[in-house]
Amino acid sequence: MAGIYIHIPFCKKACHYCNFYFSTSAQYRDEMVDCLLAEMELQRSYLAAQPISTIYFGGGTPSILPASDIKRLLDKASSLFEVTTSPEITLEANPDDLTPEKLEELTSAGINRLSIGVQSFREEDLRWMNRAHNAEQALTSIVNARAAGIENISIDLIYGGPTLTNEGWKENVAKAIELGVPHLSCYALTVEPGTALDYFIEKKKIPPVDPDKAAQHFEMLMNWVSDAGYEHYEISNFAQPGKHSRHNSSYWKGQPYLGLGPSAHSYNGQSRQWNVANNPLYMQNIRKGQVPFEIEELTPSMKLNEFIMISLRTAAGCNLEEIAERFGEEKSRQLLAAGSEFIGKGWMMLEGVTLKLTRQGKFFADGIAASLFF
Q1: Top-level CATH class of 2-252?
Q2: In what order do the strands lie in the sheet with 83-93?
Q3: Which of 4, 97, 345, 354 is the most buried (most CB within 10 A)?
């Protein structure tokens, strides 16, 4: 099975922390949709006729598009690819876009899962982040989605920010649990180069992000969602049983995917490629019948390191037998030997033939994985 990711590079306004590629000008919106349709034609053979089980609209803010454009893109995908029955079709959305009328149109277009960028249910946090929605819309977007018949809902929440107290964080998570949101993606506030947040900190307009506060919020989060019956199936992702993100899970399992649009990435098992992150340049090339991308052929070591990095972030862990089968017995033995240091620290455990992070190890996931690279 394979997936398709469609990047919609437009937003109403720039959030202070965001470093994803987007434009706040909708000047080229209609032309961009035409180019996405054209790129789909140009890339129709990339996945070698593998069945498509998930389609994901990311951004940017995909919900900024009219539902008619979403339908055009989905219809095109169905005409060019073998889309399985009951595919997971996700749309990232801002709460302020999810009116009852828009939701009815989106469900009619084929959207059956929403990833809503709530970030916080608190007005103070949303203003500080420069979000386009308010606290009331954060709440009503979930209520409206349910009323429209969409039960498969994920929301994003951000922790560790300067306006978010421990009590405020508890309020946010409790609200999500109270609403019965089946999937939570929770991220520590990070300072990405070139963002407004980076500039504000550099100019000392706001204090630096406190990593100890973020760690405390992460610890609290794991306790609350565990008590509520959520599965911590990836470092930043928590789901009620049976509600894991199929699309993201396919990434973490190393399944192929095609990325369409400016800055979108694609992976076919042997190489990765990524489109130019520039709307005008992307469209100029597509109009000429060319996809503007860079490509990186993956060496065996790169594939192994990716496997280690991604698998350790998941509850499934890093299976040593799979490593032996794919990369050789010696690599499997070396990895186990290297992992013994972290097992001794209580940060990893060996469960059968699988290396997994312990609860404490989840605080150091990326550092542990990097230490195990070949």
Answers
A1: alpha beta
A2: 231-234, 237-239, 183-188, 153-159, 113-119, 83-93, 52-59, 2-8, 257-260, 265-267, 271-275, 293-297
A3: 4
